[in-house]
Specification:
It is built from 5 helices and 6 strands. The chain is an alpha+beta fold and 173 residues long.
């Protein structure tokens, strides 16, 4: 499993920082993950409302909801676009995986369903003094729940796959 962002000609230090941060998360290394962050970070997963505030809150979130639960082994990351400056990095991507394990940051309290998932996601990373200061992560929670069979989309404006598939097909923002 690897997170490979879209090629970019912008600030390499922010890109290298976020790559180190993501690799630490993917390798379930809590200390290395926290070492990439400022002393008072915050993290918010808008789809599920999970996250943490301050070093203790973010550490607790990583320890109980993310590290070791990031994604199942068959996860695919498809990078669509990246936008950066000195203070912010924005990644747009599609993630595909089979829901074979608990994923506390996406689906708190939801037991594995065995269903295949394809979802579009946007990660906005605040950078301060060469470290990750914040992460705001957006996705379509209703579409995710419908794909898992946990939400009846009948009569709802829920797109199960089209948006993520169109993004993955075009491969560009």
């Amino acid at each position: 499993m690897a997170y490979k962002p879209a090629a970019t000609a912008t600030t390499p230090s922010a890109a290298a920082l976020f790559e180190a941060h993501m690799q630490a998360e993917l390798h379930a290394d809590l200390e290395a993950t926290m070492a990439t962050m400022v002393d008072d970070p915050h993290l918010l997963n808008l789809g599920s409302g999970t996250g943490g505030e301050g070093a203790a809150g973010v550490r607790e979130f990583y320890a109980t909801k993310l590290i070791g639960q990031f994604f199942p082994p068959d996860v695919e990351f498809i990078s669509i676009s990246r936008t950066m400056d000195q203070e912010r990095l924005v990644d747009e991507l599609v993630i595909r995986f089979t829901h074979t394990q608990a994923i506390g940051h996406l689906l708190p309290g939801v037991a594995p369903t065995g269903q295949r998932v394809e979802m579009a996601l946007v990660v906005i990373v605040g950078v301060k003094e060469g470290k990750v200061a914040s992460e705001h992560i957006y996705w379509d929670q209703a579409g995710l729940l419908a794909q898992l069979g946990l939400l009846d989309q009948a009569g709802l404006p829920v797109d199960l796959h089209t948006a993520a598939r169109l993004l993955a097909f075009t491969g560009k923002g």
